[in-house]
Write a structure and sequence with these properties.
Blueprint (H helix, E strand, L loop, with lengths): L5 E4 L2 E4 L12 E6 L2 E6 L6 H7 L22
Antiparallel strand pairs: 1-2, 3-4
Length: 76
Amino acid sequence: MPFTKVFKSGNSMAIRLPKGIKFDTNEVEIFRRGNEVIIRERQTKPTDVFDILASLPADFMVDGRQDPPPETRESW
């Protein structure tokens, strides 16, 4: 497993990816999962929305939305 060092770049932390790790994109997603930091190619396919919706639990919003009533404003 390759290793790299963490360094400061401006006000941010940065790393250099080892030579064997290359992305074929200009943007990546980065997020934390427990004590791991995951860097992966950004998911940009429109069909990904359907995967996200399909992963919602069966009881998601089973009681409907509980929105407050709209505000009443004076017209000019």
